[in-house]
Amino acid sequence: GVLQGIHRELVEPASLPEFERLQRALRGGERTEVRYAVRHPELGRRWLLTRVEPGALAGGRQTTSVVTLDVTDQERAQRRNEQLLRELTTILDSSTAGIAYLRGSVLVRCNQRFERMLGYAPGAADGATLAEIFGRGIGAGADSELGAAAAVAALGQGQDFEAELPLARDGGAPQWFSVSVRRAQPEGAHDEAVAVLTDITRLKNQQAELERALRDRELMFDLSDVGIVYQRGSRIERANQAMAALTGWAGPELSRIDAAELYESARACVEFEAAIAQGLRDHHRYAGERLLRRRDGSLIWVQVAVRTVDADDVDAGLICSFVDVDERHRSREAQAQQVEQTRAILNSVLVGIVTVSPQGIEWMNRSARRMFAGELADFVGEPMSIVATPEPDHPLRRTGLLERLQEGQAENFECRLRGRDGREFWVVGNAVVTGHALGRELTFALLDIDRRRRAEIRIAQAQASLQRVIETAPLAIALFDAATLQVQQINQTAALFLGRPVADVVGRALDEVAAPAQAAALRGWLVEAAQARDAVSREWHLEADAAARVWDCRIASLHDDDQALLLLVASDVTEQRAAEAARLQAAIAQRELLVREVHHRIKNNLQGVAGLLQQNAARHPELAGALAEAVGQVQAIAQVYGLQVGASGPLRLAGLLQAIAQSVQRTFGRPIEVGAGTELPHLLPEAESIPVALTLNELLTNAVKHGQGGAVHCQALAVGEGLQLRIANRGRLPPGFDLAQVRGGVSGLGLVRALLPRRSATLSLRQEGDEVVAAVELRPPGVRLAAAEDGPQSIA
Fold it and tell me: What are the pLDDT digits (tens) for 640-682?
């Protein structure tokens, strides 16, 4: 009804031509059917279908029938189907695979890619049969008929059909396509199917190349002169003929034996395979040489190269190549050995060797040339005295050695020499007369000992300096023989430590030079240091005539070439210890002073808070009860800190009980009697003092507030190491009262139950005659007995 009376302004611009055509038909009384879109203010965009049908009435009068239908849903569905059809067509045409729709064995529809693959003209593939499709490949005829029949039979059985189709055009290389025919509706009609054509030419070419490479590899593997092995784990999977000839084992036999049998020994196998594993981890390959054990037990040297089949798959195996290098290796080994011997002879001789004939120097080795800072040409024909220092009696200036010495006889000497660079150094050497066909000559052997002479001088100087340091050091230093504990060396300070002169100590046993107690202690320390790796530190307290002295002793074990020694180093640390003790006492005193000051200030602040609460209670009478209770609690805490002003550590329970009772008595004006028959030697830890003080304040306040008049009695009784506090007042508990049913809170009995330590305190409240008795039992560690030095305190 709302769509009746459509005006021109409701019609969308795109539908105006159709709407005008409708108006013309209405004016002319013509038959027509118009579909147009309108934008209705209530229904939005709608599609309408108006039919105009002219007619005649009974009287001959002309009439026109107009019917308008809302076809919005039909139009939307039609447009959606058209959109889906366009999208599907676009997807099929842009696909890299050829796709065709079959009904039975006849092609109904296909995409352009399918037509191009088979060489059809655009639109010419429609109506083609499977036989015609297969017939376009190489080997048409019977093969195409068989392929089509096989596809139809597979579809009839509910199975898919796949085949490969080769096509050749213009005499070129064939193109390969994979044909896959699958039923379109598994549960519906069985005569509809989808054929998919995929270009597999590249895969076919790659497969052919792979087969050719495989054939080439097999030829190289079998015909190679290098032994090649494919190994997985410790087993040989495959070996070529060259490897069989190299090892003496047949190819199948190599596959059955363990690879370790081809090594020289099990140890060599483990070491070489470890080297291979390291090389593969670092570089994915390994190359090296090893001994190969043949079938007859002989060993030959082979060069081994190992590579992984797949670097990312450790289980893929290894490819190993073996080359016979036995002859080359042994030749190289002999040559290397000869070169090594020659080098050892030439390079290991540190002695300068000089051959001198009557005509002068003839030859010198490399050590001599280095020693004299020159080359052989600089000294040939010169006398041996050319390297001597200016001393007239220098051994190299002596003459007549050739006449005086017999052949093979030597003369030793030690002297200084001077090189061409001006450096002077000490040598020790000898001169030997040797003979040959041309006559006799002298051979000098010279060893540079300049560093040794300088080291000896430095050692002597260091020993003298060390001896002076030991003698003048403020430390007590003594050296003992580790076996006999005999004093080998001692300085003046150590003599004072032992209380004997130096002359009476050196060379004597420990028991002879020290007092018995000191000797026993030192003997134990020395024995312990001799058995320990590190130095032993001990402290010795020596009682002298004037005052006690403290010595810090350290003993270390020393190992000489001939004997084991023990070094004792002791320092007088009496003044240090005294200074440390004084600093400690000062720190303790300062801490106690600070703690007392803090407690005093806390007490004053809490009393100020209590005063403020009392002022508020005076100004606000309706809150007087609650504020009075808070005032009592704050004053109880202030009492704890007030008691701690004069002392640190645990509080005496007697003093705390008296202070809390007096505070409650001053607040309420009711007498509170506190008493005990014996001394009360119990102390409260600091952590428990405030909870216990608040508990006592609350119980005494309850006794005063809820009692029926009269004095409140408070009594403390010692129970072993624990303590029982009893607070009694005249009154009566409500019928059926149970303390366990009282809920915890911030006031009253709930506060008491919350404050008391659960493991070391117990609260009970019971009726005893005309009195209500509250009992608090305190047990260690919530309370402890005072030590003797704390002193007992009685309750008055």
Answer: 655 554 555 567 777 778 877 887 788 777 888 887 544 677 7
* φ/ψ of residue 466, rounded to 5: -65, -40
Which DSSP state fits 290? E
Measure the CA–CA gap between 237 and 572, rounded to whole angstroms. 81
> By three-state DSSP, how is residue 360 classified?
strand
**Residue pLDDT, tens place only, 725-738:** 888 888 888 887 87
Kindly calculate the radius of gyration of the chain based on its CA atoms and give it in whole angstroms.
60
DSSP 109: E
Rounded to whole angstroms, how far apart are CA atoms 758 and 573? 51
Here the tokens at position 302 are 């082979």
Q: Is 349 exposed, middle or buried (0-12, 13-18, 19+ CB in 10 A)?
A: middle
Which run of H or E residues covers position 36?
Answer: strand 32-40
Q: Which residues contact 66 (CB under 8 A, 6 or more apart)?
A: 26, 50, 51, 52, 53
Among residues 253, 262, 268, the alpha carbon closest in space to that of 234 is found at: 262
- Give the rounded distance of the alpha carbon of 602 from its chain centre: 50
| Residue in the block written with tokens 């010795």 | 540
Starting at the earlier edge strand, list the strands of the sheet with 424-436.
Answer: 360-364, 352-357, 439-448, 424-436, 410-418
- Chain mean position to CA 721: 54
* Residue pointed to by tokens 């193109």: 175
Token digits of residue 42: 């209530």
Question: Is the N-terminal amide bond of 781 cis, ω within 30° of 0?
Answer: yes
* Angle subtended by helix axes 624-643 and 574-619, to nearest 10: 160
Give me the DSSP letters along 597-619: HHHHHHHHHHHHHHHHHHHHHHH
Q: Is 213 exposed, middle or buried (0-12, 13-18, 19+ CB in 10 A)?
A: exposed
Other beta carbons less than 10 A from residue 630's beta carbon: 19
pLDDT of residue 392: 87
Q: Are 550 and 541 in contact (CB under 8 A)?
A: yes
Tell me 485's DSSP state.
-
Q: Which amino acid would we find at residue 18?
A: E
Are 236 and 254 contacting, i.e. CB atoms less than 8 angstroms apart?
Answer: yes
Backbone angles phi, psi at 95, to 5 degrees: -70, 145
CA nearest 446: which of 465, 463, 431? 431
Please name which of 203, 200, 196 lies closest in space to residue 166, comparing C-alpha atoms.
200
CB 443 within 8 A of CB 354: yes
CB atoms within 10 A of CB 676: 18
Helix axes of 653-668 and 624-643: crossing angle, nearest 10 degrees: 150
Neighbours of 658 (CB within 10 A): 19
d(CA 432, CA 429): 10
For residue 11, the 8-state DSSP code is B
Alpha helices in 257-400 (DSSP H): 266-283, 326-347, 366-372
What's this model's pTM, rounded to 2 decimal places? 0.31
